[in-house]
Structure formats: C-alpha cells, structure tokens
Amino acid sequence: MAASMPTPVSASAANDHVLPVESHEQLQLSSEDRQRITERTKWVLDSPDPPGFPQEFLGSFRNAVFCRKNKKLSSSQPPLACFASFLPSVFPILNWARDYKVSMFKNDLLSGLTLASLCIPQSIGYAALAQLKPQYGLYTSVVPPLIYSTMGTSRELAIGPVAVVSLLISAMVSKVVNPITDPVSYNKLVFTVTFFTGTFQALFGLFRLGFLVDFLSQAAIVGFMAGAAIVIGLQQLKGLLGISHFTTKTDVISVLISVAKSLHTSWYPQNFILGCSFLIFILITRFIGKRNRKLFWLPAIAPLVSVILSTLIVYLTRADEHGIKIIKHFKGGLNPSSVNEVQFNSPHLREAVKIGLVCAIIALTEAVAVGRSFATIKGYNMDGNKEMIAMGFMNIAGSMSSCYVATGSFSRTAVNFSAGCQTAVSNIVMAITVLISLQLLTGLLYFTPIAILASIILSALPGLINYSEAYHIWKVDKLDFLACAGAFFGVLFASVEIGLMVAVAVSFAKIILNALRPRVEELGRLPGTDIFCEVDQYPVAHAVPGILIIRLNSGLLCFTNANPLRDRILNWVTEENGKEDTKSPISGIILDMSSVTNIDYAGILALEETNKKLLSGGIKLAIASPRWQVIHKLKVAKFVDKVGRDCIFLTVCEAVDSFVGSKFTGPGNC
Amino acid sequence: MAASMPTPVSASAANDHVLPVESHEQLQLSSEDRQRITERTKWVLDSPDPPGFPQEFLGSFRNAVFCRKNKKLSSSQPPLACFASFLPSVFPILNWARDYKVSMFKNDLLSGLTLASLCIPQSIGYAALAQLKPQYGLYTSVVPPLIYSTMGTSRELAIGPVAVVSLLISAMVSKVVNPITDPVSYNKLVFTVTFFTGTFQALFGLFRLGFLVDFLSQAAIVGFMAGAAIVIGLQQLKGLLGISHFTTKTDVISVLISVAKSLHTSWYPQNFILGCSFLIFILITRFIGKRNRKLFWLPAIAPLVSVILSTLIVYLTRADEHGIKIIKHFKGGLNPSSVNEVQFNSPHLREAVKIGLVCAIIALTEAVAVGRSFATIKGYNMDGNKEMIAMGFMNIAGSMSSCYVATGSFSRTAVNFSAGCQTAVSNIVMAITVLISLQLLTGLLYFTPIAILASIILSALPGLINYSEAYHIWKVDKLDFLACAGAFFGVLFASVEIGLMVAVAVSFAKIILNALRPRVEELGRLPGTDIFCEVDQYPVAHAVPGILIIRLNSGLLCFTNANPLRDRILNWVTEENGKEDTKSPISGIILDMSSVTNIDYAGILALEETNKKLLSGGIKLAIASPRWQVIHKLKVAKFVDKVGRDCIFLTVCEAVDSFVGSKFTGPGNC
Lengths: 670, 670
Description:
Structural class of chain A: mainly alpha
Low-confidence stretches of chain A: 1-27, 62-75, 663-670
Number of strands of chain A: 10
Radius of gyration of chain A: 33 Å
Strand order of the largest sheet of chain A: 4-3-5-7-9-10
Oligomer: homodimer
Largest interface: A-B, 93 and 93 residues
Mean pLDDT of chain A: 82
Number of domains of chain A: 2
Strand content of chain A: 5-15%
Largest sheet of chain A: 6 strands, mixed
C-alpha cells in the first residue's frame, strides 16, 4: 500500500533541506559513534532470558488464579486470631457493620422500601417469563439478597431475578422438559440449574477465573441484551393479548407466527386495553421522574401502584369472568425448602450443567457490569472475585430454598442508587419487605391481571436496548459492531444460545483476522529528529533514500503472516530496484520489530529466507529494536549468527546511521 | 511481574549519576522545548485518517486476490498481440523454451530417466497405498507431469503420486465407499475427488487465495508428515507380512491389533524375508549415495533394480505358489479416459468436495514447500499463484484421464535436483518413459511381489520424518511444538483428518492465547539516552522516579485483555503508593502504545475507566506513540478530548519530559 504512493514521500524529501545535511554528516560516522552503536547492540543481544513458556503463559494465569499472599495473615498468629482476620474477608459486612450509623439506616430504609415496591411486581413478572409460578419470583427476592448483603462488596447492587436470565432459563430448560405438561420436573430442573449456576460462580471466584467473563466482549453484550429485550418483549404479547396457546420457541419468526394464528382464533382485547393503559401510565411516571430528579420514587412505585389499582378494578368489576386473565393461584408463606428438588441423578444432569454454565456467565456479566459502573461513580473498588463468590453462594443457597437464578438487576440498581442507598442494608430491607408481603399480601394477588405483569416487564425493557452505545461501537470499530450485530440477530432469529455463540465466535475471529494479513508499513524520519514513523500516518516523515524501513502492523510474526511478509519485502525490493528512474536503489532493509511481541517457527524461517534472498541480491537486512521474546527466539534459532550480530540494532535510527555511515559493498560483508 | 522486582531498578538508579542530573535539567523545561513537544503532539493528533474497515481488512485481501495490473497489457494493443503476450504468463514454457539448449537437454534427459526409474516402482506402491490398481499410479505419472511442465514455474519439482496424498485418499474415501466390496464406485469417487482437488487448486490460484495454504503452520506440517509417515509405514505391514485381511482404519492401535490377529492366523514369512532383504539393499545404496555424491543415481535406480530382480526371482522360482503375494493383474496401455467416471450427481458429492478441499490444501502445501526450497537453492522465484493454477489444471486433466491426485514429491524432486535437471523437460522425459513402460513392460510386472512395493514405500518414509526440525521447533517455540505434537499424535492415534484439525486448532489457539493475558511491562530509561525500554529485558534501564511507564506485551488491546490491563495498572498504583517507604509516590502514568496495533471498543472503555480512576487519585495518564488505527479510534471515541490533547505524546521521552518538567498538582490540570 505504501509502495503505491511514493510521490508524497519523495516530494517531502526533496522539499526538506534537513535530510541531505544529516545524511552527509552521517557519512563521517565517528569511531566513537560506531562504538556507541556496538555497545547498544550488545545491550540488545546480552539481555537475560525472558520468562519461558510456563512462566509466560501459565504464570499470568497463575497470577490471576491463585490469591496473592495475604499480608495480614502470618503463620505466627494463633489460629483463632487467624480465623478472626479471615472472616471479614469472606463477609465484608463484618467490616462495614461496625461503622454503620443511624443516619445511614434512614437512607437505606427508604431505598430498600422503594426497591421492594419495584421488586415485587417485577419478580412476579420475571417468574412468569421463566415459566415458573409467581411466588418463585418473590422467593428469589428474599434469600439471595440476604446472603449477598453479607458477602458482596457492592453497595448498590439490587439482587433478585432479572429479565435476561429468566429468558435464558425459560428458553433453555423448556427445551429439555416441557413446563406445561410436566411442571414438577421443570421446577426440579430449574433448581438443579440454579445450583450449578451458583457452583460455577463460586468456583470462578475461588479459582480467580474471572477472565472467563471477559470472553463476552462489551460489544457482544450490547447486541445480546438488545436482542434479548426484543425477544422478552415479544414473549409478553402472550400476557398482553390474553393468548392461551403460545409457542415455546423464542425466535421472532416463531413468536410472530404464533401470535398471528392466535389473533385469528381467540384473544381478548380487554387484556390489551388494560395492559396498554397501565404501560402508558408507567412510562409517563418514568418521563416525569427523568425530568424531575426529586421525583425518582414515582417511576419506582408506579409498577406497584399499577398492580394494586388493576387488581382492585378486576376484583370490583369481576372482569376475570369477562376474559381478563388473572394470576389465580398464588401460594404465600416463607420460602419452602427445595433441597430434595436439586437432583444429581436425573437424566438431564448434563443439560443442567451446561445451562448452569451459560447462566453463570450471563448472570455474572450483568452483575459485574452493573456493580462496577456504580462503584466507579461512587469511587470505591469492587472486588471481582469476591463478587463471584458471593453470587455463587447466594445462588447455591437459593437453589435450596425454592429460588431460581438471581443476579444484580440494572433497572433496580439504578433505582436503589437514586433513592440514596448507603450500604447493602437496602437489600436486607427489601428482602424483609418482600418476605412480609409473602406472608400477608399474597391472597390479594389472586385477582392481579397477567396483562399488568406483561406491561411491567415491557416497561423495564427499553433500559436493555442501548442504541447510542451500539452507534458508538459502529463508529469506533466496525468489527466489534459485527459481533454486536451477530449477537443481536442470532438471539432474534435463531435462539439465545446461538446468539451467544455467534458473538463469541466473531469476537475471537476478530483477533485471528488481525494476525492474518497485516499491513506492512514503510517508515520515514520525522524532520529534525531521530524518530522514525510510518510515512502514511505522518505525512511529514520522509523516507531515507536507498534504505527501506519496514514495520509489520501486527503483534505477531507467525505462520499466518510470515510468508506474505517475506513476499511483500522481496517484491518491494524488486519493484523499487526494477524502476528505470530509480536514483538510489535499495541497498539495505531495516525491519523495525518494535511492535512484534512474539514470533514463531514459521516467522523465523521466513526471516531466514528473506535474509538469504536479500543477501544474494547484495542487500543488507537489519533488525531494529526487537522485543524480549523475539530476540531470545532469534538467538536460540541461531538467526542472529546468520544475519550477523552487527545487524541487530537497539533503534531504527542507529541502524540507519550504521547503514548510511558504512557503504555496503556486497554479500558476506554483514 | 515487573512490580515484584523493584530492587534492581532502584539499585541501578542509585548507582547511576546520570539520572538525577537529567531530571534536574528537565525541571527547567524551556518554553522552546514545550513548544516542540506541542508541535509533535499535533503531528500525532492531526494525522490523516487510516484506511477504513473495508480498506484495512478487505483491501489486503483484495491485494492478494485480484491480480495487479499487468503492465504489458494495455487496451490500445490489438487483441491478437494482447493474447500473444498473455499466453506466456499462463504457459511459462513459451518463455523458457526459446532459450532451451541441447546442453540442457542432456542433463534433463539423464535426470528424467533417473526420475522414471524411481517413479515407476514408487507410483505402483503409492497406488496400492491409495487402494487403487497399480496401473493408476503409473497413469498419474504421465498426464499431470506433462501438463505441469507447460504451466509450472518450478524447474525441479517432480510431479506424480505421493505417499501422504495417497494415504489421505485411502483413509478418507474408503470411509465413504468400501474399496474391496465396491471397487468401481471407489474408483469413480477417487476421480471425482481428484477433479475437485484440481478445481480448488485452480481457484486458489486464480483468486489468489494462497493464504489458505498458510493456515497449516510449518510446525503442524512437520508433525503431520511424521505421523503420516508412521501410519503409511504401518500400512505396509500388510504387504510385507503377506496379510490378506487388514483393517481399513489408519490409526496405530487398530492397525497393530489387526496385525497381531493376522500373525496368529495366517501370514507368510517368505514375504517378510524377501521384502526386508530388498529394503536393506535399498537402504545400503542410499547410504552409499549419501557418502559419495557422484553415486546419486545408485539410490535412485535401486528400487527399479529391486523390482526387476525380485520379479525375476519369483518368476524363476514360481514362489507365488508358495505364499509370496504378487501384483497379478496389471492392465497396460495408454491412460484410458475417465471423463464419465467423474460424477456430479452421486450421493457422495458432498464428501467428494470435502475430501477434495483437504487434498488440495495438503497437496499444495507439500508441492509449494518442496518447490520453494529448491527454488531458493537455485536462486529463482517461484510464483505461488501460478503454481496453484498449474497444479489445479494438471489434476483436472488427470481426473479425466484415470489419474488420481498428483503433486510435487519430496524424494523424487531431490533426486531430480541431484541428477542435475535444468528445466521441466525432465518431467516430460519421465512422463514419456513411464508411458513407454506402460505400453511395453506391464506384462512383466505380473510377477512383482507386493512385499517389494512395501519395502520401496518404506524406504521413502524416513525423508518425511524430520527429527532435527522437530527438535529445533521445540527449542524455539514450545507452543509451536504443541501444534506439531498435536498433528503427530492426532494422525497416529485418531485419524488423518483429526490430526489436521488438531494442528490447525492449536495454531489458531496460539494466536488467541497471545492476546489473552499479556505481560504488562515496565519501561525505564537507558542510561544516557532518550530511549525507554523494558527494565526486565534491559537491566541497565532504570525507572523514572514518580512515573510509571507501562507497555502492553500484545499487539491488540481488546476485550480479552483490556479489563486485566486496567486492573493491573490500578493495583500497581495502589501497591506502589501504599508502601510506607515510598520516596516518590507515582504521580503520572505513561502508557506506551507503540506496540498496540489495534484497539477495540472494550479497550477504549478500559482506557476511559483507567483515566477516570487515576484522575480521581490525582494521577495523570499520558498516551505515548499511538499507532495509526489506535489514535484514529481514540479520536473518534472522543477519548482524546477526555484525557486532554496535551496528554498525547509522540514518544515516551517527550511524555516524561513534560511530566517531570511540569509538576502535576491535581485533577483537572490535564
């Protein structure tokens, strides 16, 4: 690419009077200069060995996997003291509870109550999305938040069921067991999945495998969340339209066909009217809340108000006898034990483990992203590994007490933050409030219309779709946007798992693509400096006549790009020296290796072949500023001996000085 | 890692008197210096836009895929002249045939005859390996070499059937059609596969998709070839031991079990004795040939001598009646047409395409590797794309004339080279010799013992096993060796395809692994210079007190390593500034981006978070020497505006100067 535009380079070289002077001076390279260059080459060649294979690759993992030494724990301490200092690291509540003040509790009480008023309707709705009975949503808002508040390190994170994980459970578990024909097995499988989700999360935290969460790139999450939001929204059409027979598939096309069929046969417009009116009510309160920050509680309690109002309307008008679908069965009381429902000898164990792994990663991704963004606002650190352990234990405990997978909810965390929560006590307040509601109010929920739950879920979805971030991704990185779009359309038109797989595949393909056909850049001297930069990036830079300075635009010189690099260099030389009007034919090539962090066997072979071919044409090859691994491998592979120790330079500038100062006369001189 | 060894750094800083002087001088950074730095920052920020997504990724492919403009072809030329100048580029023989001299023909005749004497027994053996009748091997040594000699650019490459491709065909095609129960369908499928092999090869050449061949790294090929050699050797046990019932699988365990079973029931030791004696004879001649370069023809004709001698022995002693297995059926004459046997409407079309693709890549890999290494020795250029087109057409023509997949053979090319061949005429001589043998001598091959063919194949195998290269790979790059070992053991214990897949998977996993958890390097100033290098690589370098200079050891700052980098930097700062004995707490961080060739959305987010966190701690973040794509994306993402235009520097040195010269007092100053 650079070779096809030599005009600006030669033009700038001609306009600039600095270069000829410089190169003239360098022709009289003093013996002192020469000694200095040799001295520096020695630095390059006599560097200690870099960390070997186990240190380089496993070391960084070990660093991440095993805890660093805890300085507070020394073996000289008595076991009890040791235990006492160990406890607060597992239960951060022991640290902050001592400093807890009444003024803080005021804030936490207020935010906890606000949270509960939003949490109760959302939990019931998400349980319906997960194809579970409504009480399971409330159960999930009791035990996990209590456990999390003792073990978690985030102060704002609102724990409970969330939309995306509910969709995941519904989509993946219902493929294994049909929730309508066999609800008992379905529940059992859901609890087993919850147990494995918790186990995976705890293991990730204990073994510091948090990097697994990084495998879903930011861009993929944006696309996945948006796709999931649309899929969840479409699922709500069932409740909103009062449809009885609905597809179990989640892709757009199946759902739309199913809806179209139902619209021809039987649906109840009353449900739609009721749902839409309350949806509009909730959206208006949200609009007001956004306009006036002090009224933040208005959108937060709007869902609960909608539930109460609509239940009253249905109860008073007995609208359930005229086609309005209501919840009907609602078992109140404390969380029942579900220890016996977690089954390890079921024929679906394999699926349970698989779904558990997917849920664990998605749930952690959402919670960590939400928690971290609010921790950044408040300026404290969230410990990723402790978070994972806390999430893990809360889900394991949840699976024993009739809860399904809980995690940090984005919409509720935002409400918690706006309500001014100070510590995780707001989660405790919320859990207790939900618990009391479960004891006292469940009888009242008999007449709650399903359409209202649908509208509450629908109202929470826009927060999952982030247009502006998607646009930002498109502007910044087209390939990242491809991962984003892949996840989005995969979720929308295929299934949740396929969407995730597409996103991960595109993300990794991106890394490989970058190593596949990198640009080969031509470097030139920035006027008046010793700095050599790409001539395309810095139009002020001018090439050094007679010397081709080349840099590979890739961090790896490996089998995918080694042969093309060799061919590119050799073609470049042939083209340049083949021109009839060449004033200064190329007599030396400097390979700037500063950006090549690693090289493999194929890369070394290609360098050897390049050197051999160039030498046979009387052209000298120099390697400038090689990195640690690269110079080590070049030494081990005896390439340094072949090219000559005096052809390795610390910087491009020294290589140029050496080339221009010494007239290269033919092969064998190197 | 670097943070855990601050002792040598501070020690060197203390020993060295240069640093304090330098830093003292820099405190009085003149306004001229300041202006110079600002000027250079402008160069960084006002660079033109880099090539966009289509140019960056598709452009490099386009460059590779579409031919560059042929300068000789201008539209003003009459069509006939245009055609006349186009012809030699497709048929290089038209170029070199004009300069062909009688003296060259002498050499080519000799080498062609030597080649034929080696080729005839090898072709028969390889046909047996591919589970085809022996004449097909000879057919394959007639048509493809003739086509190649007109279209190919290599002068030494000996074309014909080779061991590895024969094994591939046998292993993959026999899974679809059983060659023993249904030889007619088997032959048809083999010709169809050959047709697709040729088609793929021609397409690779026409569309310049040669990079697909690069997907098999050198290391993987070494392992694959060694594994294939052992598998081929084991397959020869059938002929060598005279076993009738043999497994169709190729993995070591199946073959050994099959051999063990046969040894219990029925085998004929005479075959083994005969085969081994001639194998020893061939190996001795090779030893002599290696010792005395002038006797290169001795190992070359030894196989043919073995065939003739053993055939005579069997014919004279009628040993075939006493258990010695012989070829028996051998149809002579010209290559019959097989146009009707290439079937596009067969139920196995899909498999044929798949096997064709694998064969195309393996055959090209071998031919290009062999051809290129000899071209390098003789100092001429082999055009990879023309080679692929030539290979493609020779295999398409072959599939029409009863040939199976042909390619460049390593052992025969070496013989051709040693025999002093000058041009591809040696291939023509060989093909004509084989053709004559097919006409005249096939009747004589009736009594040739199969054990001899086995020993001829066995004698060619050691060349495929390259211990020294494997050891070299192990020394240079442990991960490359893993790809090599994966291919080796995959071929050996699973199947040929699995071995290939393992090799490709390991090779690509290597690229991803490199981007996964890169080391974060601390840079320091080399004494008396403006150069900043890694303190671990250059122990003479010393850190600048109060400033942390960091470089990422990866070419990509992407979702896999962005969050860990952020955490690493923030932990580093916390650790350093948390030390009680810190003399100069860190007040600035310089991120040397010189090796980061690309950044993605996650990388930019991580940088933004890092900057926000550091600012809140009163620490300044600077970006030094960003690459073209990186600075462009940082500008588009408005990161440059957030961090401040004066926090972007052309070099690390300027960033240090600016930091040391200006005392940073708090956030907002940047």
